Amino acid sequence: ENIEKLNGYLARFRDGGVQNLIAGESRPAASGAIFDTTSPVDESLICPVARGGPEDIDAAAKAATDAFPAWRDLPVAERKKILIRIAEGIEARAEEIALCECWDTGQALRFMSKAALRGAANFRFFADKVASARDGQNLRSPTLMNVTTRVPLGPVGVITPWNTPFMLSTWKIAPALAAGCTVVHKPAEFSPLTARILAEIAHEAGLPAGVWNLVNGFGEDAGRALTEHPKIKAIAFVGESKTGSMIMKQGADTLKRVHFELGGKNPVVVFDDADLDRALDAAIFMIYSLNGERCTSSSRLLVQDTVAEDFEAKLTARVNAIRVGHPLDPETEVGPLIHKVHFDKVTSYFDTARTDGATIAAGGERVGEQGWFVRPTLFTNATNDMRIAQEEIFGPVLTSIRFSTEDEALSIANGTQYGLTGYVWTNDLTRALRFTDKLEAGMIWVNSENVRHLPTPFGGVKASGLGRDGGDWSFEFYMEQKHIGFAL
Ligand code: NAD
Description:
Keywords: NAD, Oxidoreductase. The chain has helices at residues 2-16, 54-73, 76-92, 94-105, 109-129, 165-179, 193-204, 219-228, 241-250, 276-288, 305-320, 340-356, 387-390, 406-414, 429-438, 473-478; strands spanning 20-22, 25-27, 34-38, 45-50, 144-152, 155-159, 182-186, 212-214, 234-238, 257-261, 267-270, 300-304, 359-362, 377-382, 397-403, 421-425, 443-446, 465-466, 479-487. The chain is an alpha/beta fold.
């Protein structure tokens, strides 16, 4: 039934492909170049996509520059109304978004249907914040009335990855628009469908032409041109740490402001006094949902040796029972990985684990002959210096490492280049406070999986990111503080 619906939704892409959207107009790439997007389920062609390059980025940056003054000065109530209409548009097309994204990325529908609605929630949240975006303070001195205010930066670039691409795009673009910035969005080349649907929804909601421009293409040409463009004031980027580093270099000549949400190798630390059944559920959810293609996934399990044997045995049984299958089947928990390139990377770690001397307690193999399916995998007998404990695999693959003391757990948890999230399971409150105080991560949950609350800061430390999103932190990035001193 879902496949029939999907075919209905895909028909328009099969007819016209995915075009760019610049200054409110659907356009092919200026060079006429295209690339194909394929489904990871069976490698079939979905449709051609406009392959934008520097010329298209230039046209989009000009459109965003022209549209900026009017968008910046639009009355707050009008801006808020448009953002709410975008949220309503997403809700109305949530099924189409979820089905297209599952087919394009391989993510299972049971998780993706929620991701579409979270996209709408992001727009509603920032619609409510429009009124306070420009708020400032009065820092009066004996001789001056010192007023601060915030002003939007101007046209900004947003570059997004292929994992939960729809939700992540809304998370970046909604606050940019709420702040009064205009946007050029370059979505990931592996997952272009829902970025196009999203931009259409925005225009149907009454967003003026040029406020939101979409340019598809590859990182090395369209992405690069966006980061180097002099009219683009800032780059909000979500992707790999090494790409973040390249973008920083590319943006140096134009002094680009950057905000990076990068990779992770996040620990879930289970002490023997924890509620072990809840910890087990959460550890499984945080690595095997969304195919493990999730920046906040708990890809390292640190388990105390007093309970490790029993915990790992239960974990192995549960991992072996995870349902791998067609992403549109509501029963499926793990779908195919995004692309052959990524599949080759993830499966290469099966050999790495063997060579390093770890045990493959579950999975460690491909599923079927067609599509990029892998069996959910658990490595045990691992140590923190192994590559499987240090490198971001970004698939349904968990590395379990045992520890005996709290100090040892802390040193393992902090012993990677990354620092995005951490999950700590213990019923000892003092230990939880002590441990989280020293854990190097931007976001930590105690006795909980990752539950996002939109007003809280989102972001990582070390190689996991620069800057924070969420609540008012998003405005700190998309806006400039201005001080005006009035003599008394
Ligand atoms: P990626 O870095 O390969 O690509 C991300 C985007 O950057 C794509 O749109 C790509 O075209 C573009 N790009 C590539 N090279 C570029 C260049 N030189 N200049 C400008 N743009 C360029 O990442 P990916 O493989 O698509 O996504 C997975 C990664 O994203 C993982 O590392 C994951 O942890 C990370 N991620 C982080 C968060 C977070 O919030 N911290 C969220 C989701 C994903």
